[in-house]
Amino acid sequence: MSQQNVLNVVDLTVYYYTKRGVIHAVEDVSLTADKMDFVAIVGESGSGKSTLVYALLNLVPPPGRIVKGSIFVDGIDILRLSGDKLRRARGSLISMVFQDPFTTLDPIRRVGDQIAEVLIEHGISKDEAYARVGEVLESVGLSRNIANAYPHQLSGGQRQRVSIAAAIALNPRVLVADEPTTALDVIVQKQIMDLIDRIRLSTGMSIILITHDIALAVERATKIVVMYAGKIVEYGSKQSIIEEPLHPYTQALLASVPDIESGKWPKSIPGTPPDLRNPPTGCRFHPRCPYSSDLCRIKQPDLVGYGKNHYVSCWLYIRK
Ligand SMILES: Nc1ncnc2c1ncn2[C@@H]1O[C@H](COP(=O)(O)OP(=O)(O)OP(=O)(O)O)[C@@H](O)[C@H]1O
Ligand code: NI
């Protein structure tokens, strides 16, 4: 992996230690993002997508714990930081936009004060912070006057723009977003995605976005990460993944995208995702895989390179 990667995740493993057992939510995940990359993380519910991105900011809630791994942003390992250093890294190196802006915005404070506070905490003077608030609100397509509004006076789309403004106010290298548009209607969803893309292209920020919407990933991403049961099963440039999906799970996911032109119904993937307290042996997808063999039941396949910028974890592609 080159030194130039803005984000470099190495062997990240995150478990939840619940009373009913240890949930293997993210296991040995490695991935990279370059400047201006738009990485879409896809996979069924419960596959570990949110756990992975919360870990990127060292924000996994208890009873979750990062068991091992490194997360380098610009060469700095976020997981080796604590206290003030960690707080400063959040926001200036990597920051996050959540699904529901109500969870991040304080309902009883003006939005401008909330954005300014983030800047002041990072050592910026009050005057400079308020000047930056106006600027960053405009950069997300809002008027400067919005600074005086309270969150409830804004529409859902405006609120999400405010949280994006707060997240990018310190010009982080990486912007992480966990399904940032699911609470919004379709037209506003597109506007917010256009905004995120514009920010990426104008600042060079890397975007890491979780989505349930495969069509959105196909439309916007430069890289696609496919997660299944806490593991990356396939990962690569968007082009290579859609032109030549290798993993049977990726093939099934892409086949589940409704084909509007042909009027075909989407195919759902037979079976259900496994219980991560006791994941299947070998390849975690083997119980649902139409191609599974004895080897798949016994031994976990490594994530191996297949062509340029394309990695897959499947025995079908490993010379035995
Ligand atoms: N706070 C928590 N305590 C215990 N287990 C958790 C917690 N958060 C997530 N998990 C478990 O970790 C696994 C991965 O969950 P995660 O939320 O990361 O998946 P996801 O891919 O983001 O799912 P979704 O698409 O539904 O948002 C699941 O088995 C889930 O039940
Ligand atoms: Ni999630």
UniProtKB/TrEMBL annotation:
<dbReference type="GO" id="GO:0015833">
    <property type="term" value="P:peptide transport"/>
</dbReference>
<keyword id="KW-0067">ATP-binding</keyword>
<protein>
    <recommendedName>
        <fullName>Nickel import system ATP-binding protein NikD</fullName>
        <ecNumber>7.2.2.11</ecNumber>
    </recommendedName>
</protein>
<dbReference type="InterPro" id="IPR017871">
    <property type="entry name" value="ABC_transporter-like_CS"/>
</dbReference>
<keyword id="KW-1278">Translocase</keyword>
<keyword id="KW-0406">Ion transport</keyword>
<dbReference type="Pfam" id="PF08352">
    <property type="entry name" value="oligo_HPY"/>
</dbReference>
<keyword id="KW-0547">Nucleotide-binding</keyword>
<dbReference type="InterPro" id="IPR050388">
    <property type="entry name" value="ABC_Ni/Peptide_Import"/>
</dbReference>
<dbReference type="InterPro" id="IPR027417">
    <property type="entry name" value="P-loop_NTPase"/>
</dbReference>
<feature type="domain" description="ABC transporter">
    <location>
        <begin position="7"/>
        <end position="254"/>
    </location>
</feature>
<keyword id="KW-0813">Transport</keyword>
<keyword id="KW-0472">Membrane</keyword>
<dbReference type="GO" id="GO:0015413">
    <property type="term" value="F:ABC-type nickel transporter activity"/>
</dbReference>
<dbReference type="InterPro" id="IPR003439">
    <property type="entry name" value="ABC_transporter-like_ATP-bd"/>
</dbReference>
<dbReference type="GO" id="GO:0016887">
    <property type="term" value="F:ATP hydrolysis activity"/>
</dbReference>
<dbReference type="Pfam" id="PF00005">
    <property type="entry name" value="ABC_tran"/>
</dbReference>
<dbReference type="GO" id="GO:0005886">
    <property type="term" value="C:plasma membrane"/>
</dbReference>
<comment type="subunit">
    <text>The complex is composed of two ATP-binding proteins (NikD and NikE), two transmembrane proteins (NikB and NikC) and a solute-binding protein (NikA).</text>
</comment>
<keyword id="KW-1003">Cell membrane</keyword>
<dbReference type="InterPro" id="IPR013563">
    <property type="entry name" value="Oligopep_ABC_C"/>
</dbReference>
<dbReference type="InterPro" id="IPR003593">
    <property type="entry name" value="AAA+_ATPase"/>
</dbReference>
<dbReference type="GO" id="GO:0005524">
    <property type="term" value="F:ATP binding"/>
</dbReference>
